[in-house]
């Protein structure tokens, strides 16, 4: 009985291993490249629940490579891309990473979408010193660990969170800020960011009110507290549904006194507008990308992407696209060499579809690519002047 | 003083909403010693019927009536198929109630999706100034409806033949039936009354907070259930008292202590009452029957 | 809605039970019991403790819901599938061994409850307090007052008291009043005199006789006090171990050796 069980287990494990290898992607790589191309790998969720994000990112990556190769490549060398599926899951992600490091021609990894998958991969890539230039992974934990081979295209959650506060204090000049945040980790983190951002810009948090998401929709009492603190602006540091309900109830607390609203990217959804109603008009948000950004880089990107894929690009596509162009510029800055690339990547400054991308010492986008939008007439409208002022800081 | 008044009014308004939702628990518990776990889902459904009809341009009064009817019909179905077959059993109705609640919630998801939606209702953005105090016309609506519903309940229980039959069934179900009370019909009427109060509460909830979600049947229930326990489960007047008390207490804790302590206070109160005064402030001994 | 149930079927038997057999568990509580209460008669049912008298009343009144063999007809109607409240509507009421009242209601409210089944106004009209509903409520209260008046000044001055505050005899009177409020043509009385002193017993005996005469109300009387049985019943059934061992006038029964043996044994 026990023996039979072991036999079955061994067979199952063997079958599982074979399946894993097949799923992990191309097996090639031990053979040395005969061509004179720049080989890069991309790892993103191409199947599973996050596949939509991964595929859109990959579309941005493919578009950029196609454009660069058509224009003669990087210093005359074509880019060759190997695609791997990490399923947004640490286990397949680690398998893919092991596949990638066994291919000695690969000089960089791009396109990462999921923080959890990327966290599992970075140490593996680190063993062979392979640079990772991630696309839309946003967890602060990735850069906090001080990995030497990591950089990312979009600003992390902390920098995004500080964006709305910086808009309020540095660009719009508000001195007294009230914060409404959920009592969970997300809300606590945003409150801490708000406090730091306020301290850094000489503003003051005059009220910090919290609520338990999902257990109440009644914001009248916390809004009365906020109104009593007489703030210049209210920072909405929560989920769009709660923020929509709170804003719709805010007229009762503030009467006809207008209170400017500062919000995060996740509030930039139609549901917030429909829940909050007329009171939401004028809400400011900062985001990492806006399709209506009128910069020439973005216009060119949107036109090319829409032509090729017959769909409007979102932040995923823009990040994947800028990802490749940042890499191209880094290799050019490195005089065409792909050796010791990471310090060069971190020193790169690139005007892309998203905006101006540059990095700090941990490989984080410093926030120069953030965009500012304002709810005007029920629509989110790109605010070019505020965007320029915010990213100039 | 202005701040105090504002918070008091906020608390009383929430309290009325809690009370409306709590009545559905207390009425049923009072008569059958059974916690009506499907209640939240029933009033959620009725409230969504009203909300979606208003959205689609139906007159307000008609939408409200349709929501009440929907709540009543579901209450009848739940009583008939989930409660009546297991009446008298202590545990089984809890299980069937949770099951039927999930069915209702999933049907609601199919019809209305899981999206959180606003409740289109008049007066939502209007304000009234009473000196320094800012008031919403909705708070007046909530207060008037609350008083009217309390009066209606008082009339039903003390002034009608139905109320007398309900109290007789509560005292001694078997004897009431032998004396000619159609117990099944009275019980179903109690469920319907609970559902009607619940839908009224749900509509007020949606109108005043301007937020509806299919999960309100579960999450919106915590405060209502706490109010029921504070008031004394089984006592409908206790449900009103508990609702108002909880609403005002929450507003005062938020206003004068910290919003971070709100759930601590709510749960603490719930646990304290369950441990030290399970009969609630009304102090009714619910286990009057073996 | 109850109007058609109140039509008197053309039968002269208020209660007719034939071959009633009742088993629960492995126990046979009643074995082929047949009993008739003629219209307008008071019939006695006696027997030692545990002989099946209460089981019999519970089957007839619908308090017992399980299956039984045989047939029970109340005012001519087979009641096998009739829920208890419909039996009340069809003209049967009962009182209980040990008084059973609604303890949180007043005297008047307890009595008024007996009228519930005859309300012609619906719940909604009652809540809206429409003129017909108000008229009916007033009429019911008048009727309750008349019933209370049957007991002289025992209940009338206490109409608004909680029943828990009453004496045992008065509680019994409330219970009988509540049964009368259902306008029964058949009344099942399960030991009405238990717990009453001789004076109260005599008074209630007279009142039952008066009811029987005035309203031709048929009664089935289960009673331990043989003097009461003797005063009220023309015909008596004797139940022992679930079987009717004899029946007849009281004088005859009391001489029957089987009866003596049953009560002594």
Annotate the secondary structure layout.
The complex is a heterotrimer of chains A (393), B (290) and C (265).
Chain A: H1 2-23, E1 38-44, H2 51-70, E2 79-85, H3 90-101, E3 106-110, H4 115-127, E4 132-134, H5 140-144, E5 150-152, H6 157-171, E6 176-182, H7 185-200, E7 204-211, H8 220-228, E8 233-236, H9 240-254, E9 261-263, H10 270-276, E10 284-287, H11 296-309, H12 315-333, H13 342-347, E11 349-351, E12 356-358, E13 371-376, E14 379-382, H14 384-392
Parallel strand pairs in A: 1-2, 1-3, 3-4, 4-5, 6-7, 6-8, 8-9, 9-10
Antiparallel strand pairs in A: 10-13, 11-12, 13-14
Helix pairs in contact in A: 2-12, 3-4, 6-7, 8-9, 9-10
Chain B: H1 2-32, H2 39-55, H3 60-83, H4 92-112, E1 128-130, E2 133-135, H5 137-159, H6 161-171, H7 173-178, H8 183-209, H9 216-219, H10 221-231, H11 236-257, H12 262-276
Antiparallel strand pairs in B: 1-2
Helix pairs in contact in B: 1-5, 1-8, 1-10, 1-11, 2-3, 2-4, 2-8, 3-8, 5-6, 5-8, 6-8, 10-11, 10-12
Chain C: E1 13-24, E2 27-38, E3 42-46, H1 53-61, E4 69-74, E5 77-78, H2 84-89, E6 92-95, H3 107-113, H4 123-128, H5 131-149, H6 168-181, E7 186-190, H7 198-215, E8 218-222, H8 226-232, E9 235-240, E10 243-248, H9 250-255, H10 257-264
Parallel strand pairs in C: 3-8, 3-9, 6-7, 7-8
Antiparallel strand pairs in C: 1-2, 1-4, 4-5, 9-10
Please describe the biggest sheet of chain B, giving its number of strands, its sense, and whether it closes into a barrel.
2 strands, antiparallel
- Determine the N-to-C terminus distance of chain B: 50 Å
Number of strands of chain A: 14
Q: Strand order of the main beta sheet of chain A, please?
A: 7-6-8-9-10-13-14
For the largest beta-sheet of chain A, the strand count, sense and barrel status come to: 7 strands, mixed
% residues in beta strands of chain B: under 5%
Order of helices and strands of chain A: HEHEHEHEHEHEHEHEHEHEHHHEEEEH
For the secondary structure, the number of strands of chain B is 2
CATH topology descriptor of chain B: ABC transporter involved in vitamin B12 uptake, BtuC
CATH superfamily of the largest domain in chain A: Response regulator
Which outline of chain B best applies?
Answer: globular
Low-confidence parts of chain A, pLDDT < 50 over ≥5 residues? 1-33
Instruction: Name the CATH class of chain B.
Output: Mainly Alpha
Number of helices, where a helix is a run of at least 4 consecutive DSSP H or I residues of chain A: 14
Strand order of the largest sheet of chain B: 1-2
For the termini of chain A, the CA-CA separation is 71 Å
Structural class by SSE content of chain B:
mainly alpha
What is the mean pLDDT of chain A? 88
Shape of chain A: elongated
